[in-house]
């Protein structure tokens, strides 16, 4: 498999997902898009632009993979936009993956996953300009 060099831009429409992230305190925009070839499963520091509202770039944390902690099987691109709480279902967004934070893995508990997600957010804040 060919490795993609960062940054990588992914554009797609926001769709409804399992709403699991929202329940954990980290709502995500689930992206309907072609799946990138050569991109490692994992968590990325990213920036998101909601198209049609190009004046603002939001810091975000993006997960690409199958969600092994929840026995997921299908590949998904999900992004948590930091400091953002608007309904963007059916809107087109562009996510720029800036830095690989960690590989995807199965956590022993949801509590461990939430702790890792908090760390991902802190790492993203230190790497993005938003």
UniProtKB/TrEMBL annotation:
EC number: 2.7.1.26
Pfam family, one: Flavokinase
Catalytic activity: riboflavin + ATP = FMN + ADP + H(+)
Protein name: riboflavin kinase
UniProt keyword Nucleotide-binding, yes or no: yes
Molecular function via GO: ATP binding; nucleotidyltransferase activity; riboflavin kinase activity
Domain (Riboflavin kinase) ranges: 5-129
Keyword Nucleotidyltransferase carried by entry: yes
Gene: ribF_2
Broad class of enzyme this protein falls into: transferase
Alphabetical keyword list: ATP-binding, Flavoprotein, FMN, Nucleotide-binding, Nucleotidyltransferase, Plasmid, Transferase
PANTHER family xrefs: RIBOFLAVIN KINASE, RIBOFLAVIN KINASE/FMN ADENYLYLTRANSFERASE
